[in-house]
Amino acid sequence: MDNLETIEIKAFLPAKDFELSKQFYRDIGFTLAWASESLAYLHAGKSSFLLSDFYTREFAENLMMHLLVVDVDAWWRQIDAQDLPGRYGITVAPPEDRDWGLRDFTMHDPSGVLWRIGQSIEP
User: Fold this and answer.
1) What is the pLDDT of residues 12-71, one digit of tens each?
2) Which of 35, 36, 77, 123 has a Cα-to-Cα distance from 19 of 20 to 30 A?
């Protein structure tokens, strides 16, 4: 086979309210690298995704993203300090140590996508 090296993989996340979702992701720590009328590229460090001005409830509410970070408690403090549930009508749950070797917390975005943000720990 020829060179099958990859560069990256990105998910396309749905946005019920595109402008609101772009602001939400900037508020939690992502950088908006570029945007068009219907697509936005966001990243935090080496992790990135595309936000799409497209929404289907069944898809959004069954989509889960996992972000592995160096310091989950630092991410939690930043998110907790911003009153995201009050500002965006979302749910967040504080960090917990999981049996499978992660300390993570969960958060839904304004479109219903579930995020697990965590760091590796000893199981």
Assistant:
1) 999 999 999 999 999 999 999 999 999 999 999 999 999 999 999 999 999 999 999 999
2) 77
Instruction: Specify the number of domains making up the chain.
Output: 1
The C-alpha atoms of residue 69 and residue 120 are separated, in whole angstroms, by 8
CATH number of 101's domain = 3.10.180.10
Q: Is residue 4 part of a domain?
A: no
Q: Please tell me the distance from the alpha carbon of residue 100 to that of residue 23, in angstroms, as a whole number.
A: 32
Residue 1: pLDDT band (50, 70, 90) is low
CA-closest candidate to residue 119, choices 108, 100, 111: 100
Residues in contact with 4: Cβ distance below 8 Å, sequence separation at least 6, in sequence order: none
Element spanning 27, H or E: helix 18-28
- Whole-angstrom Cα distance, residue 3 to residue 74? 39
Flag whether the pTM goes above 0.90.
yes
Q: Is there a domain that residue 94 lies in?
A: yes
User: Is 3 part of any domain?
Assistant: no
